[in-house]
Write a structure and sequence with these properties.
There is one protein chain. This protein is an alpha/beta fold and about 290 residues long. It is built from 11 helices and 9 strands. It has a 7-stranded mixed beta sheet with strand order 5-4-3-6-7-9-8, sandwiched between helices. A two-stranded antiparallel sheet has the order 1-2. The protein is globular and about 70 Å long.
Length: about 290
């Protein structure tokens, strides 16, 4: 691209769209490089780009055309009302997982306070931080838990960006329930999780996901059910009476996940579908 002052953002937008093959991606990349968004972006389209901004745009476009996901290139991505830091240390937040938060919020309304939530395998912190900001009342506490220290670093960075709601959040590093203080055993109101649920040899997994996102957050044994089973068994022990579990699952795992929940002694077991009509969320309660 040209040197300082010789190209406007309108020209750069057209050039970027040609390189990426997407007008939407070009706009996101140019907005990120320019630091402009909303009405400021439209007002600044005919302004000359600085040399630094052009260099930043060049670097981002080069990463994108090499196949890196747009979310990692931008370095952040929206999730419900949050704008989350995301990079290769964590999964990219997806719209299906936003629906998990809706289910969890509905279940939380039926629980007497205080409500203690454990977001297991939190990654970027998306689920837990959304709940911390959207649950009402001061009697709420959300634990963000992940076995990956790198993921916990990302979750902590995102926690710093949610303002006053951060006082209702704790962070733990460790494997599933083992990261929680023992006094929470039998006291959790909600267990929420988007655990690894992809079978290691799953041919349906998109190459861009397999190549770029953290394998520890994707794969769970030969059938993809290992982590789900662990979460379900632990929930039966760590939930308080009438406490609820919401767990994201693979589209073909509804029957198997339900069987594991029932075998663990959970009740009111059901599988809810995502907006595309796929079985996606295991929901259950402790008796």
């Amino acid at each position: 691209m040209a040197a300082d002052g010789t190209l406007t953002w309108r020209e750069l937008l057209a050039e970027t769209a040609g390189r990426t093959g997407s007008a939407d991606e070009a706009r996101w990349l140019c907005q990120e490089a320019s630091g402009l968004e909303g009405s400021e972006w439209f007002a600044g389209l005919d302004a000359a780009a600085t040399q630094r901004a052009v260099a930043r745009l060049d670097a981002m476009v080069a990463r994108r055309v090499q196949g890196e996901p747009l979310q990692y290139v931008l370095g952040h991505w929206p999730f419900r009302h949050l704008d989350l830091l995301v990079d290769r240390r964590v999964l990219i937040p997806r719209p299906e997982t936003e629906q998990l938060v809706d289910i969890a919020l509905a279940l939380a309304r039926d629980l007497a306070p205080p409500v203690v939530v454990a977001d297991l395998g939190t990654g970027s912190g998306a689920i837990g931080l959304a709940l911390a900001t959207e649950l009402r009342g001061d009697d709420r506490l959300v634990w963000l838990v992940d076995v990956s220290e790198e993921a916990v670093e990302v979750a902590r960075a995102n926690l710093a960006g949610i303002g006053r709601a951060a006082v209702h959040v704790m962070v733990g590093t460790g494997s599933w329930f083992a990261a929680l203080p023992d006094e929470l055993r039998g006291a959790l109101g909600l267990v929420v999780s988007n655990p690894p649920y992809v079978a290691e040899s799953d041919p349906a997994l998109e190459p861009v996901v397999r190549d770029w996102e953290p394998p520890g957050a994707l794969f769970a044994g030969s059938d993809g059910l290992a982590a789900i089973g662990h979460v379900v068994r632990g929930a039966a022990e760590w939930l308080r009476p009438e406490g609820a579990l919401v767990c994201e699952i693979g589209t073909a795992q509804g029957a198997a996940a339900s069987s594991r929940a029932e075998a663990a002694g959970l009740i009111d077991v059901r599988v809810e579908r995502d907006l595309a009509g796929h079985e996606r969320f295991l929901v259950a309660r402790r008796a």
